[in-house]
Amino acid sequence: MTENETLFRGPLGDMAQTEAGPAGVHPADLYMAAVSWWSAAVAPVASIASWPDAPVTVWASVVRRDGSEGDSLHGLLRRLLSESAPLALHHDVTNRRLLGAACHATLRAERAGVGAPGFLLTGSPFTAGRGGSSISMSLEGPIRQAWGGRNRLPTRGVGRYRAGRPGPPFGSLWEVSAREWRGFLATDAATYSRLLHFSRRSAAARCTDPEPGSWRHELAAAYGWAFNTRPELTYTPRAGRQWHMIRTAVDHGGDLPEQHADFFVRIGDHVSRIAGTLATTERTAIHSAHVESAWSLTRRAVLDTADLAAMDRSAVEQFIKGLDEMLCDVEPEEGRAAPIRPIRPAYSSLGPRGSGRHGGKTATGSSAVRKLKEWYQDQCQMCAAVLVLPSPRHRYSEAAHIRAREDDGPDVVENLLCLCPNCHVLFDAGARILTDDLRVVDTVTGRFGERIRLHRWHFIELEFVRHHRRRWTGDERRGALSD
Ligand SMILES: [Zn+2]
User: Fold this and answer.
1) Distance, CA 369 to ligand 1 centroid (Å)?
2) pTM beyond cutoff 0.90
3) Which of 272, 315, 421, 481 makes the best surface tag, with the fewest CB within 10 Å?
4) Residues 196 and 249 in one domain
5) Which of 329, 364, 397 corresponds to the end of one domain?
6) What pLDDT, on the 0 to 100 scale, is given for residue 1?
């Protein structure tokens, strides 16, 4: 196989191609690991419209050829991605106690409004013992149940985690040795059909160099977008047909080695999850380019499995070739996808902690205020002032509603600004309004000022900005004018 067979796509693809060389890892390994990491960051809030119960979480394992250690991929990703996609938690989990601890930490961070509701499980499911390593029996049960339960941990028997409510969703990125992997295949301990795996390759010499820093910016924006939109992703007609073909082909697996049929059952599942994950990085519907990139990763995992499990490789290659040809035959017309549906409930229907399926995930009320002040560290978004008060020494700021509370403005971060008391009064009295691109206008002098400071995950709903402007100027569109 050559590197070219992996179709790199979007900011994660840019990241893999830019950063893999210097880090001494193979770009495709880094790409797959990054998809897994990213999916754990966005999976708690993104889903696929035609398949709403399935999160986009991708479980991946990277198999080291025995003797080749190298840098840990999740260590590398932690460094690269933690800025743009902070998970509530990413932790080596090797036993049931640590799994319980991970659940608790995730839940606490979410309650405090400072973390994502999901986490990434790293490390390895294997424990070392006499006669080599074997899968940790204490981990096997919860993980197997999570696989059957939409990637949510079971609530019973995992540490002190309280029964009766679903555990947090999680993804997985394991790094295992080839020897452990063969042991994995030989046992029915865990359902390896849910793992996409790669055998670890060494660094590629070639390394393209897209615009410096661009993938970081794109991913940070995508992360904020996902959390504020809670997107329900749709397929374009062409992408949908391609995905359907892959599923159908797998269902009629043909000459695939029967003894390993379990692995191949999930190919359609993998492709859909990866394509969905990639689409979130570009804030679009799922296009054929996402399906094709997802297939290129899955195809490589299938061939690696064939090697690691000593399958009849020619049958597997035949199957792959057939699928490659079918995908190319789908007419090139992409077609338009239905718009991505945000699944966040309407503001007016939000109770104190939200309501409906995804209730409680949009920060509301005091948790929104906490989140806002945490983001800005009490610095005013308009004038940058920070007020420090004594005894006990603390910073002071106010959460200002953009659409006023008395006008039914909701207590959500999309409708809040972190302001100093002066700017708060000026804003509430209409002495300051905001343009559509969030520049401050002094309505007394008519002067246009700077753009307000904006934390990268703070998405302000334009509807509220316009409402505020309309209230004080009577002209909704005035702010869209330039000076
Ligand atoms: Zn101020």
Assistant:
1) 17
2) no
3) 481
4) yes
5) 329
6) 39
| Cα 243 to ligand 1 centre (Å) | 52
- In this structure, the answer to whether residues 368 and 305 fall within a common structural domain is no
Q: Any idea what DSSP says for residue 364?
A: B
Residue 38 domain boundaries:
3-329
Token output for 279? 């689409």
The closest alpha carbon to 480, from 464, 460, 466, belongs to: 466
What percent of the chain is helix, strand and coil (3-state, nearest 5)?
Answer: 45, 15, 40
Summarised one tens digit per residue, pLDDT across range 182-221 is 877 766 555 566 788 888 887 655 555 556 557 888 888 8
Cα 427 to ligand 1 centroid, rounded to whole Å: 10
Q: What percent of the chain has pLDDT over 70?
A: 76
Convert the pLDDT of each residue in 76-116 to its tens digit. Answer: 888 888 777 777 677 787 777 788 788 888 877 777 766 66
Closest CA to 117 of 145, 87, 155, 97: 87
Give a yes or no: residue 335 inside a domain: no
Task: Find the 379 Cα to ligand 1 centroid distance in Å.
Answer: 8
Residue type, 293: S
Cβ pair 249, 330 in contact under 8 A: no
Structural domain includes residue 336: no
Confidence of residue 380 (pLDDT cuts 50, 70, 90): very high
Q: Calculate how far, in angstroms, residue 415's C-alpha sits from the geometric centre of ligand 1.
A: 17
Instruction: Report the residue count for the chain.
Output: 483
* Whole-number pLDDT of residue 353: 33
Residue 17 domain-assigned?
yes
Number of structural domains in the chain: 2
Looking at the domain assignment, is residue 337 inside a domain?
A: no
Give residue-wise pLDDT tens across range 267-278: 888 899 999 999
| The pair of three-digit structure tokens given for residue 373, joined into one six-digit string | 């002040």
299 and 258 within one domain: yes
381 CA from centroid of ligand 1 (Å): 7
Q: Could you tell me if 86 and 117 lie in one domain?
A: yes
Verify that 143 and 31 share a domain, yes or no: yes
Is the predicted pLDDT of residue 433 greater than 80, yes or no? yes
CA-closest candidate to residue 338, choices 241, 235, 436: 235
Q: What is the pLDDT of residues 236-260, one digit of tens each?
A: 888 988 988 888 887 776 666 666 6
Number of C-beta neighbours around residue 105 at 10 A: 16
Count of CB atoms situated within 10 Å of the CB of 297:
27
Q: Are residues 295 and 348 in the same domain?
A: no
Nearest Cα to Cα of residue 11 among 67, 88, 81:
81
pLDDT in tens, 308-321: 888 888 888 888 88
